[in-house]
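Dear support,

I submitted the protein below through the web form. The confirmation email said the job was done, but the results page showed an empty box. After a refresh the structure appeared. I'm attaching both so you can tell me whether what I see now is the final result or a partial one.
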Amino acid sequence: MTHDLAQAAYIAAAALFVFSLYWMNSPKTARRSVMAGVVAMLLAVIATWMQPEVVNHGWIVLAIIAGFVVGIPLSRVPLTAVPQRTALSHAFGGLAAGLVGTAKYYLWSGEGSEHLTAFRMGAIVAEIILGFLTFTGSLMAAGKLQELKWIPQRPVTYPLQNVSNIALLAIAVALGILLVVDPTGPWAYAAFPAIIGMALLFGVLFIIPIGGADMPTVISMLNSYAGLSAVAMGFVLDNK
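What the results page shows now:
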């Protein structure tokens, strides 16, 4: 019974998240979008919390309190600071997805290689790459919009920049494919943190050649990456 209720809540939350993104396209429906997102997240948290395997409730309560402590001040930023506020939200979302994927990988690898199926490993790889590059990329975007002194506002370019960036991402993806093929090989424990490091670095390198004036467009793109990482996180969490 609990499982069925949780699955129904997850489906409702997913639908509300989709409508939330759709309603954000117009100022007339923006308030409805925010409320839909709030209800969706509440449903997702409750559905996860009610799972019988969740026994450390204190950590969940602590995380909720920490979320309120950070979220309430951020909700009171002036209207002109909403873009960088949105970028910070994307950063936290990407970090959450990346950390969940990391935790699941080390948990399942410790329990035995049979737990790391090709599907699970593929979802984890997608989750950590998209999540961690969204984290650093969104932080850079927020810093540019906030005009922080230690983050250059003008585009930073250098020779073979696009080639090196694509190569960095391609190496991370190639290592991820190798992990899907053999998730517990002798080199796997070095490859996994290497993928995380390259994803974090790519997020920075992806943003620095873009000027501060173009950051709102970049934030919209990072929102898509955050959404994809969240979808991958859903596959990981649902495949216990």
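Response: this is the final, complete result; the empty box was a page-load delay. The CA atoms of residues 7 and 47 lie 8 Å apart.
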